[in-house]
# Entry
Amino acid sequence: MSKIQKIDRRDFVKLFGLASGGILLGCTATTVEKKFKPAIDQDYFAPNLFVHLEKNGNVTLIASRSEMGQGIRTSLASAIADELEADWQYVSVKQAIGHEKYGNQNTDGSRSVRTKLAPMRRMGAAAKRMLITAAAKKWNVAETACKAENHHIINKNTNEKIFFGDLVEAASQDEVPAEETIQLKKVEDFKFIGKTLKSVDLDDFTHGTATYGIDVRIPNMKFAAIARCPVTFGTVKSFKKDKAAKVAGVEAIYEMPRLIPPTGKFFGMLGGVAVIANNTWAAFQGKLALAIEWDKGENASFDTEAFKKTLTERVHKTGKLVPGSRGNVTTAFNAAEKTVAATYHVPFLVHAPMEVPNATAWFQGDKIEVWAPVQDPQTARSELAHFFEIPIEHIIVNVPFLGGGFGRKSKSDFVVEAVAISKKINAPVQVVWTREDDVQHSFYHATSAQYLKGGLDSSGKVTGWLQRVGFPSIVSSFKPLSDYASGFELGQGFINNPYDLENFRLESVKAEANLRIGWLRSVVHIHSGFGINSFVDELAFAAQKDPVQFRLELIGKDRILTGKSEFPFNSKRFKNVLTATAKMANWGVKPTKNHGFGVAIHYSFYSYVATIVEVSVVDKKVKVENIWTTIDCGLALNKDNIKNQLEGAAIFGMSLALYGKISTKNGAVEQHNFFDYQMTRMKDAPKIHIHIVDAMKEPPTGVGEPGVPVMAPAICNAIFNATGERVRSLPLADLGMV
# Structure
């Protein structure tokens, strides 16, 4: 269980530069009780969560997670505020810098709430107890005679009350209550948790005062743009800078060699030719004026269409057996009344967050300071220490708001670029990628091919399931020759297939990486969600059964699969989101002419999601009319934020299904900007209906990503319902359907 300690004023100032006094509580997951010291040392208590109570009543959470629109700062602050019985107007958030003292700051995998909620609640409850103790001493009454309410401690005997701030000085003299005496609120008593809550950053967001990475300005700062080889890992053969040097505002031009990270670590940088100027526009124009001859290297012949054909051929042949397979599918197929087989494709995808990659850096000889919208500031810090041989304690990474991330900003290559340029020019510099840079030089979500074969008996029951999958592994970005999907990737919807299958065989095939591969929102679940949900729909049709009823039967009896996870899979909860969504969408009602309904369900990040989509298809053009989504994410911390996340996931998933595709020819990415890597526009946005299951007594699970994997298969299944034509390859734009 988390341990909570009070941090003394000297350490308090040393850690945060906060000299206002008050109470600062630190919490860590260690089970060894140690005296706090602001150092990275196994012999000392090193908290990674902090809350600060001031004499003016302000309550400040030191947020160790990056805010990129997912509302994590508000969600975690609400946990503190609820247990503390705080008034929301006094609650604020200070963003942590990248540092080991905050523990794992990597903001991905929809894990922030499920890992931070419990200790945050205990910190709020501990602070409340300290304030109650101080008030009880002041009134000379028992602590049981006091209660906290709306930022005051109230004497239940006399109804006297004292403002939190007026108790802070006295409370700061007391010790933190013993762990076993801290009592958390009952679910039914929550004031903020599980409710609709105003964002702590709302004023900044709505008034344009929020500082994103691209807004950072420091004295004497230069601006830089980098021309990179159009082919991944290509290098500069030669370049001419005459025209670029004549662009007004351009101050310097030089070659940047590629920085190759050690195996298993970091991201390095691609290298190229850097243009430094006194404003961003001049740097961009100077870059366009460069004449560069590239050595395109070994990826120069990479063609995504040819690779798609290669992957398809491979999944039609026996692959490597994946552990977790069971039974005998060959026997099952031989005995089956009917067999069904299909092949599915997902193309390479790119994140394209609204704020492009950017970083501001100042290399100062023996220290580095960075301002960058990163999801993983600690990895960026470690990477800088490695490449520039600066002690890690001399490196500061400041994290402003992220204008979207989706996984792209968990890679720190753009931060390395900024530091390398700052070192070269001996001045602070901001590197800004153009949208074209972002689309053409990213870490891409992998393409995939899947072959599935199923057997059905005379009653329409699935008797055998064979699945072969091939996609370039994320491991390839860290370890050369990683040509097969890793176990942790196959564990995202493939090995842990949620259906009750007696005969199940999973195989993996070779898939080389000729582009940089990286995480994208919902990661490998995009592949598993599309293939499995599409195939189940085909099985249901072959069995002549309703798709919803077929899925309920395929999930099987109520069962709980514990495995090694603290979040066991519960088939009853999975079926519940499906039936709830079917009811919400009036499933079973005959659609109007040219309309169709499609369903998809998926279990990811320990959350259960079901989606039903209504489409219309007129002259072979698809329009998404309605989306109904239900999520069971356990304890719903902030319902307004969950609704926002699922609405965003619906649009994100629609964009991938309708338009999402990165293609290459002669090794170079063919897409450039939003005109040829399109997104769902406002005019195409459907009506989105969200239902959040009341599961407040279950532990919280992921929200930011689970709404994505169901979108593409539900849309494609709806198209089949409307037209009788199957869509097995994304995006729909390739088929002329949008």
In short: The first helix runs from residue 9 to 16. The chain is about 30% helix and 20% strand.
